Amino acid sequence: MRHLRTGLRGAAALALAASAFAGAASAADDGALRDKWCSKAHIRFFVGGAEGDAFGTVVYNGARQAAADTGAQVDYVFSGWQNEKMTQQLREAVAAHPDGIAMMGHPGEAAILPLAQQAAKAGIKMMYQNVPVPAAVDKVGGGYVGAQQAPQGHALGVEIARRFGLKSGDVAIVMLSSNDLIRAAREEATAKALEEAGVKVVRLASQAEWAADPNLAIPVVTAALQANPTARAIVYPGGQQLGNAAAYMKAAGKKPGEIINIGFDTSPQIVQMFKDGWVQLAADQQPFQQGYLPILSLCEQIVYGLAPINVDTSAGFVTPDNYAAVADLAKQGLR
């Protein structure tokens, strides 16, 4: 019986110790789980486009969700995709001295780097989204959330040639952003991948203003199609233009599917273009993450002293076969 009593005492002691450990663990867990843990941080977030912009809306919704989840105090900056305006707004943001800034990389490294250096001297944390700014990240720190431009563009070019059987002698029109080499690297990589397959590529300069009003590109696109009557495909540099594919094709006198329309992103407009047969392929770059993750990372840096995150948001391809899977989310401004 002594051994039994000893065993009972040992079991009781183990149970007591386990209970104490569980209580300590529970207390530790309760202390680690914090509601609105970033509520003291002030952040300026660059949406890129104007309010209501198809791509910018998804980015904005991602940022708003991150602010709601973390409690961060976020000021949203809308730029209408105008690089000079965006640069001036960044200058104003640095002067306002928030705890962190999430910046679109569209103005380019020459414009952003001096302001990023000022921000670093002032102790302002920086994140970048959508277009990378590697020189700023290398010299003064920060992280990047978005697609890697050249790899994503090249993958799209390879997929175009494979999926649609483009080969030597075929003609494709590729619209390239004309304002910055880093931003244009995506579509240039698409063009090069097509050329590697033997396709003749016609490069067409795209203007930044077309993202805000894609109808401005109608005369340029129709002229390019008239000048290249054998063109089989056209690649657009942004979701705004891809979502306007029907307007371009109708202006050129084309029927759905007569020209292969390709580009980037999803939106309610692009979903409709897939449904109506005007669009055949899009490379997804998950703009919701480009809104959510920069704010999350800034909060982690400001509150916990963690390192900035870097995430490649390239997610694959949206096609006529799978677009329905994201259609409802796109209509809600989430994809």
From TrEMBL:
Alphabetic keyword roster: Signal
Positions of the Periplasmic binding protein domain: 47-300
Predominant place of localization: periplasm
Signal sequence extent: 1-27
Keyword Signal set for record: yes
A single GO cellular-component term on record: outer membrane-bounded periplasmic space
Pfam families: Peripla_BP_4 (PF13407)
Domain of life: Bacteria
GO molecular function: carbohydrate binding
Transmembrane regions: none
InterPro entries: Bact_Solute-Bind_Prot2, Peripla_BP_I, SBP_2_dom
Location(s), subcellular: Periplasm
Keyword Signal appears in the UniProt entry: yes
Cross-referenced PANTHER family: ABC TRANSPORTER PERIPLASMIC-BINDING PROTEIN YPHF, D-XYLOSE-BINDING PERIPLASMIC PROTEIN
Family: Belongs to the bacterial solute-binding protein 2 family.
Record protein name field: Monosaccharide ABC transporter substrate-binding protein (CUT2 family)
Organism listed in the record: Roseiarcus fermentans
